Amino acid sequence: MPYDRTNTVYAAQALSCFSIDKYSQLKNVYFYRNLTRKMNRFIKMGIGMAGAGLLFAAIAILASKKRQAVTQSIKDASLKPGNDFYNYALGIEVQNSPWGKDVLGNNFALLQGFNAKALKAILEKARANKNALTGSVEKRVGDFYAAGMDTASIEKLGYTPIKFELAAIDTIKTLPGLVKKINYLRTSGIAYPLYGFSVATDPKNAGVMIPFLEQGGTTLANRDNYLKNDKYSVELRNRYLKLISTLFGLTGTSPHKASTNAVIVFNIEKQLAAAQLSPVELRDVNKTYNKFYLDNFSKITPGLDWRTILAELEVKEQDSVLVSIPAFFTAAADLLKRVPLEDWKLYLKWNILKEAAPYLSAPFVKANLAFTPIPDKGIGIPREEWLSSLTDGSIGELLGQLYVKEYFKPATKAKVEGLVANLRKAFEIRIKGLNWMGAATKQKALNKLAAIRLKIGYPDKWENYEGLEINRRTFFKNVQNVRSWQYRLMIGWLGKPADRGRWETTAATVNAYYNPMQNEIVFPAGILQPPFFDLNADDAANYGAIGTLIGHEMAHAFDDNGSKFDADGTLSDWWTNEDREKFEAKAAELAKQFDSYVVLDSIHVNGKLTLGENIADIGGLNAAYAAFRMTSEGKSTQKIAGFTPLQRFFLSWAQLWREYMSSEYLAQMVLADPHPPGRYRTIGPLVNMDVWYTAFDVKPGENLYKKPKNRICIW
Fold it and tell me: For the purposes of burial, counting CB atoms within 10 Å of the CB of 253, is it exposed (0-12), middle (13-18) or buried (19 or more)?
């Protein structure tokens, strides 16, 4: 589950497993980050990043209730692999894992915590280095970090850093003036109201960069949080209203007025949410590809002149734009006319407040954290570690140079490249052996597989952030400077060929991704550590962990959306109609399987929403197993700690998805997260693999048993 290199909805969809911001960082399921920020670290800073990634929102969570992290279920004789493989696997030592008592979350969050501590050590050293040369990497990262640690100055300022911008909203007198301010807030890195905007690769012309507009304007993680009346959504809305009211109150607004403001802001966002497509609908890459000439787009959004808007967004010499959801912009244009101007001004103030709160004085930070525990805003971790992650998400290609020197061995890169080579061979064999796909489609699939580019560890060429001003004493200004600099870097992509060497994640990120429009898989140094990869581990542990993730990312090239892009990364139909129909029938079976999994009460996994991840998991796990069998250990039956290599492979896979989270988080997660919860991510592919039944002697009548004729094989 590692999402959006070029930042479009397409990359986000295919990217895969985890989720931190695809081009940002640790994601919070309670916040909807529009794709511009969610997938683009060049616009919105965060802690890390994600891709068609491995994890999505689940990566960053902390459970609200403490309990023992690992249940030694292997000691329970009643627990059989065929009845509850997930819990069976958790009590067995296979991976070199940091899990321990009272640790909550998942492996991604745990490794992210380790990396935050590693980055902290690097940054503390840089901050203390008084001899660092002006302009050097050490000096710049040290100054950014030092400014964030200067809490005395931050507390003294209160909300002064945004007072001018808040007051400027009051001077708006007309609707065109409001729209102009919306665009100014975006280009200045202050806020991102109303809609999403980025510069993206044109999916139907992969070498060209084009302006991209998408639905946005809301704050909560999912449109259903505004529209549904289940107990979790209602409770979340109540807390959200309190957050809005509290932050307005901290700027001197009376309690009554602050509460009124909260209702006004929420109602605007609710109307925007009603115009949005659901997460499942957004997965349709053809539905979300809509190219307009600017004048034609302006005609369907009366009152919004897109030539003027793009000029205000500093976009020059562009006559067309990609639009993910045209109907959203038609609705937004109508809403701009119907909602009173004074209400829109409150909405803009709220957008400034919510973006600034994590970087202001303690009352703002505490109010923000009280809404929900969000690791990327400092809850549960020391400020030093939060700032370490923020620095990585802000100027990560500076900090990454220091991180790689300390924590990424050349031997790791060589070993992982060997794993990839074996995975590629295994995938090739499996494609050639498919009994449901015709020869013509197979050849094109093999061409695409051979063309997948590999990025391991860190970029060949580091970004130097030329022109970015960092001052040791102005934390908030540094944050805004980074956002503004990143925006202009992004705008600079227009008129130039797509840069296939650019990374959309930082070296220290605990994630991975597949980018369909570049046809590449990317594994940063940050994830190439235990428990995902261990140079000293046996092949079973490594192939069951990082091997399955590599396979997962490769399989994203052939999931229900990735399979719509060709070897060059162009959105095109390279399948025969017959083969596509067979593929979709198999995908529908897999969606139905996951629909049957009950998460809480009457809440089920959404098989259509998670389909891309589930196809990638089942394909990746099968390919990783085939690659493991190519090794000498994979051919052996010699036991380690009482388990055969084959058993250890599957146990390593299961332990990869170990997690503990609150029921409240789970309820929100299944609404928007394209990755299923860890339990179902573990067992979903396994019940379709004959070899798993053999490895653990799973028999008919056991809970997880699935008849051979019903087992799903796609890739």
Answer: middle
Question: Cα–Cα distances in Å, from 68 out to 63, 93, 190, 372, 375?
Answer: 12, 16, 42, 22, 20
Contacts (Cβ under 8 Å, ≥6 apart) of 362:
151, 155
**Nearest alpha-carbon partner for 711 in 597, 616, 606, 622:** 622
H/E element, 524 = strand 520-524
Write the single-letter amino acid at 510. V
Higher pLDDT, 260 or 44: 260
pLDDT tens for each residue of 597-649: 999 888 899 999 999 999 999 999 999 999 999 999 999 999 999 999 999 99
Confidence of residue 58 (pLDDT cuts 50, 70, 90): very low
Number of CB atoms found within 10 A of residue 101's CB:
9
- Report residue 436 CA to chain centroid gap: 33
Amino acid at 715: W
Task: Report residue 489 CA to chain centroid gap.
Answer: 21
What does the block give as tokens for 637?
A: 């039956």
Q: Write down the pTM of the prediction.
A: 0.87
- At 282, list the tokens: 């957004």
3-state secondary structure 614-636: HHHHHHHHHHHHHHHCCCCCCCC
Q: What is the 3-state secondary structure (H, E, C) of 534-558?
A: CCCCCHHHHHHHHHHHHHHHHHHCC
State residue 103's pLDDT score. 52
Let me know the angle formed at the C-alpha of 323 by 319 and 325, rounded to the nearest 5 degrees.
Answer: 155
Classified as helix, coil or strand, 213 is strand
- What sections of 463-602 are H helices per DSSP? 475-491, 539-542, 548-556, 577-595
Contact yes or no for 98/114 (Cβ under 8 A): yes
Considering just the CA atoms, what is the radius of gyration of the chain in Å? 25
Give 77's DSSP letter.
T
pLDDT (mean) for 482-506: 94
d(CA 156, CA 160): 9
Average pLDDT, the chain: 87
In angstroms, rounded to a whole number, what is the distance separating the alpha carbons of residues 583 and 712?
Answer: 11
- pLDDT of 127-168, one tens digit each? 999 999 999 999 999 999 999 999 999 999 999 999 999 999
